[in-house]
Design a protein that fits this description.
With 257 residues, this protein is of the alpha/beta class. The chain has helices spanning 11-22, 34-46, 61-75, 99-122, 135-138, 144-164, 183-196, 200-207, 215-225, 246-255; strands spanning 2-6, 26-31, 51-55, 80-83, 127-131, 170-176, 233-237, 240-243. Helix content is 51%, strand content 16%.
Length: 257
């Protein structure tokens, strides 16, 4: 397949790009920082695989459309998209941040996810993987803005999945657990430690599953999901993917009130 990956310059997005390329897929890499993209692309090319790059901020719809068109031209089309770009938002107690500061990253995150998903559909992509987080369902203290953004991405992907499945479009949501190898996980662990009065190492020991989830592990899950239909929502930890019963939760919600 020819797969476009956003957020491909670092963290889980980079792991996805590397694993897909290793599995024989042609990859189109999108991120804001061009130097990060070339750092990811070069080893893939050195291994004899195809990796094309396009620098774009996913919050900018015109830039995203240009990136899609450029990569589709370079790769001869696009079959799948994995959206891994996103921000972490304010980290710390809700009471310590003004509304404007709290919500800005959430709206930016939602805008980026909407841009990528709708442009992918417009370009005829038939496989779409949305990265959310287990924070979307755990509602973790001290990262409420990030939880809200993750929940927004999950809601968008799940609604989209139901809207387009009869058109042959498969949509998956992946929800990685807390990991120091993810961009947000790596930055949030010191915050958790600060407010708990312990060391980051103690937070990792207490709250991070062992063995730790790696970027390569997330990439392996996305690689497998490209061949799985129908779509669904998946918790991702170091042992792989686990189906989340979101349909059961939704059915319960519809019976309340």
């Amino acid at each position: 397949m020819r797969v476009l990956i956003t957020g491909a310059g670092r963290g889980f997005g980079r792991g996805v790009a590397e694993q897909l390329a290793a599995a024989g897929h042609d990859v189109g890499l999108v991120a804001r920082t061009a130097s990060d993209l070339f750092e990811v692309a070069q080893p893939i090319r050195d291994a004899g695989r195809i990796a094309e790059v396009a620098s774009a901020d996913v919050r900018d719809r015109a830039a995203v459309a240009d990136a899609f068109d450029h990569l589709a031209e370079r790769l001869g089309g696009l079959d799948a998209v994995a959206h891994f770009a996103g921000g972490e938002g304010h980290m710390g107690p809700v009471s310590e941040v003004a509304w404007e500061q709290w919500c800005r990253p959430f709206f930016d995150d939602a805008r980026g996810a909407h841009n990528v998903a709708t442009i992918a559909l417009d370009r005829g992509v038939t496989r779409f993987v949305m990265c959310s987080s287990m924070a979307a369902v755990s509602m973790t203290p001290l990262v409420s803005a990030y939880c809200a953004g993750a929940l927004g991405r999950l809601a968008l992907a799940e609604a989209l999945r139901k809207e387009v499945e009869d058109r042959g479009v498969v949509v998956h949501s992946v929800l990685p657990v807390l990991s120091p190898h993810g961009g947000v996980g790596g930055r949030s662990i010191p915050v958790f430690a600060k407010y708990a009065g312990v060391t980051p190492e103690e937070i990792i020991e207490a709250r991070v599953t062992s063995p730790q989830l790696t970027a390569a592990g997330v990439g392996e899950v996305v690689r497998d999901l490209l061949d799985i239909a129908p779509g669904g929502a998946w918790k991702v930890d170091s042992s792989g993917k686990h189906a989340l019963p979101l349909a059961d939760i939704a059915a319960t919600a519809h019976t309340v009130g």
